[in-house]
Amino acid sequence: MARKQKQKPNVCPRCGTVVESPDKTWTLTSPIPDKKGRITVTVMGSFTCPRCGYKWRAVISKIKVGGDEESEEEAPEPRQGEIIEIDLDEVYQEADKA
User: Fold this and answer.
1) How much is the pTM?
2) What is 1-67's CATH number, 3.40.50, 2.30.30, 3.30.1490, 2.60.40?
3) End-to-end CA distance of the chain
4) Is the pLDDT of residue 88 over 70?
């Protein structure tokens, strides 16, 4: 399956004419935040080509809003586990007794 090439949202997919501005714009807000607690707000636009009359919708921009700014900068502390030291001589002595 071929991937669609990314092109500017204001370029007509049929004839390649550049459209100055969208006919209509609206926003979509994601219902679930990302790992950092940010919400994605997507600005969509509806375009009509003045040359061929083709109509299409495209993403104009995406913005990440909110989240906890302090937690992004702080690196998590490395986990410290309990250190267990074993003397192999003691293990061998106990194995000889058994």
Assistant:
1) 0.57
2) 2.30.30
3) 66
4) yes
